[in-house]
Amino acid sequence: MTDSFTFPPIGYLSTPFPDKFGIPRQPRLAPHAVGELRLLPPFDRPESVRGLEAFSHVWLTFVFHETVGNWSPTVRPPRLGGNKRVGVFASRAPFRPNPIGLSLVELDGVDTANGVVLRFRGVDLVDGTPILDIKPYIPFVESQPEARGGFVDGPPQQLAVTFSDEAMGACQAAQTRYPHLIELIGEVLAQDPRPAYADDPQRLYGVRLYDFDVKWRCDGQTAIVTALELIEP
């Protein structure tokens, strides 16, 4: 019996999220979060994705590469306020014995003109995440409306999102390069990425998207974007 396994990545996913903070906690909560995966040799043969374009959604098997070796038998899910612990196998936390995850994303394009490049919508992974495998999503088998969701009993409550005049002007100027930046900011902040214990309406937070630092604060049930700052290389 084999005691250990080694899997090479088939590619690394490019996403708008250079940092973990602000990434939606589940896939498809931010439809304008787009990702691109260029398959690495020898997996970049067009025949390896033949027929994939017929599917609307796919499963990405990936590595929680920033938490390798940091597993814990219990974790504190944000859905439980960040205080109550559950077993790691009753959660989707990244601190796992084998740091492997699954993400269901929308397939937005298959390009085989020069190798293989796949485009996705609704990604929830940090930029540069190693991808191990891709499998098509099959609705009649994998959609189970009657399934119990445990402590995840429905979608999270969302914040309203507003922009200051300065922030909106900066976002509009940036949209020549990032056409859906305003929508993406709104989708990300609506999920309220703050720690569960945070409630100071004057505290300023920063979420990195692409090469911008989005400055914002939360007043009650409203996230207020105050500025969009370019991150210097």
Query: How many distinct helices?
Result: 3
Cα-to-Cα separation, first versus last residue: 48 Å
The tally of strands reads 12
Tell me the strand percentage band: 25-35%
User: What count of structural domains?
Assistant: 2
User: Given this structure, which CATH class of the largest domain is correct?
Assistant: Mainly Beta
User: Based on CA inertia axes, which overall geometry fits?
Assistant: globular
Q: How helical, in percent, are the residues?
A: 10-25%
State the CATH superfamily name of the largest domain: YaeB-like
Under CATH, the topology of the largest domain can be stated as Elongation Factor Tu (Ef-tu), domain 3
**Neighbour order of strands in the largest sheet:** 1-2-7-6-3-8
Low-confidence stretches: none
What's the CATH architecture of the largest domain? Beta Barrel
Largest sheet: 6 strands, antiparallel, barrel
Describe, in short, the structure shown:
With 233 residues, this protein is mainly β.
